[in-house]
Amino acid sequence: MNVIDTEQKELNYDDIQGIVLQERPTPYVGTYVLLSIDHLQDGKAMLQRLLDEVTSAGEWSKPHEGAWVNVGFTFRGLQKLGVPQDSLNSFDKEFREGMAARAAKLGDVNESSPEHWEDPLGTDKVDVALALFASTEEALHQAEEAAHRIHSDLRGISVIYRLEVGMNPDGRTHLGFMDGISNPRIQGNHIPNAVGQEDEIKAGEFLFGYVNESGTVTKGPEPVELGHNGCYLSLRKLHMRVAAFRRYLREHADHRDDEELLAAKMVGRWPSGAPLSLAPETDDPALGEDIHRRNAFTYADDPKGFKCPVSSHIRRAFPRDSLQDFVVNVNIHRLLRRSTMYGPVLPEGVMEDDGQDRGIIFAGICSSLSRQFEFIKTDWLNGGNFAGISTEKDPITGKNEGEGIFTIPDKPIRHRVKELPSFSITKGGEYFFIPSMTAIRWMVELD
C-alpha cells in the first residue's frame, strides 16, 4: 500500500452495494439464499442478470420492487466464474482458504467444529450468497421473485440452502437484549447512521481503494475494476443456547431480582440497550432508545470495570478507550455489522430447551479479514489476556465450554461467576467477496 494524500475520496453510491453503506429498515424480514455454480456459461448468465437485480447504495431509498437484493461470492465461486488466476491470487489468504479451514484459529472446535456444521455451510458447494431484505413480507416476496429471476431456467445454477431471517417482535436478540446498537460511521458516507452517533472511521477500513486509519490506501484484489468499491463479508450461523443462558442466570444470581443485573454485567448493556457505563445501577429504557446518547460513552472513568466489567461482551467486542495503556488503535479493528436473527423466540420464562434452532446470522463487513474479523474473534473475544485478564473470554460468544470465568469488580471484593458454558455454537460460516457493480460487469465481460 502506498501512502497518498489523506483527502477522502467521494464514495460512489451507485457502484457500492447497498448492504455496505446502508442499514436495514426497522422492522425488516429477509432470506439468505446460497447457490452453487455447476456450469461456467450459466454462471455468466447469472452475473448478467445480477446487474438488473442487485441494489446499490444509491438505489436503497427506492428499492427495486420494494425490496433489496445484494450478492457475495466465495473464492470457489470466483474460480468457477473464470476469474483469472492472477486476480484470484491477489485476494487475501484468509479469503482464499475459507472459514472452515481456519476454524481452529477462530475457536470453532468441538461442538462448533466444521465436522458438525450444517450442510452445505463451510463446504466447497457454496459459491454465491444472495441477501434479500424488505420491510414487509409482501415486499420480501418481491425480492424472492427477483432472486428467482437471477437463476431460474439456468440448469447450471442450483439453490442449495435457504434461511429465513428477520427482526424478533420486540426488536431484541434471543437472549433478550436490543440488537444492532453500535456500528461505526464511514467517513464520507452521507447516509445517516440509524443506530447512533459514533466517531467516523475512514472508508478504507471497509472498502478497497480508499484511505484507511493508517493513512494508506487499502489495496484490494486486482485489477482495479475487480477490487475497487468491494469488500469482504464474514457470514456465520450461530446457534444460541437461550434456555442454558436463562438457567445460568437463575443458578448464579444472588437473588431472582438480580438475574437481569447479572445478564447486563455479562453483556455490558441492559436489555433496553442502555449501556452500563451511563446507567450502572438500573435499566434506563429512554436512554436505550436515544440514538444520540446510547453510544456516547467511553471507559475512561471506569478503568477497573466497576460500572461495566472489563470482560463484558460489548467491551471486548469494541474496547473504545480501554486499551490506551496497550498502545492499540481500536479503529483499525472495527467491523460493519449487518447481523440478523433466525428461528422462533423461546417464550419468556421457559427454562428448558425446546429443540428449536434459533440464533444469529452474524454478518461482518471489512477490508481485512485478518486485521478485523479474525483479530476481534481471536484476540478480543476468545483471547485469554484481554486487557490484562489472564484467563477470561467473552461470556456471551467466547469459547468457554463449562470452564469459563467472569469477573464482576465490586467493593470491598470482586464477584466471580464460574463454570460458564458456551452459549453460542457455530453451525457454519463462510467468507464472501462483495463486489462493486463495476466488478460484476467486469466478470461478465471476461473472455
TrEMBL record:
> In the UniProt record, does the keyword Lipoprotein occur?
no
Renumbered to this chain, the signal peptide range is none
Pfam families the record matches: DyP_N
**GO MF annotation, one:** peroxidase activity
Cofactor names from the entry are: heme b
| Keywords recorded for this protein, A-Z | Iron, Metal-binding, Oxidoreductase, Peroxidase
Which parts of the sequence belong to the DyP dimeric alpha+beta barrel domain?
46-152
Its family remark reads:
Belongs to the DyP-type peroxidase family.
PANTHER family the UniProt entry points to: BLR4509 PROTEIN, DEFERROCHELATASE/PEROXIDASE
Name used for this protein in its record: Dyp-type peroxidase
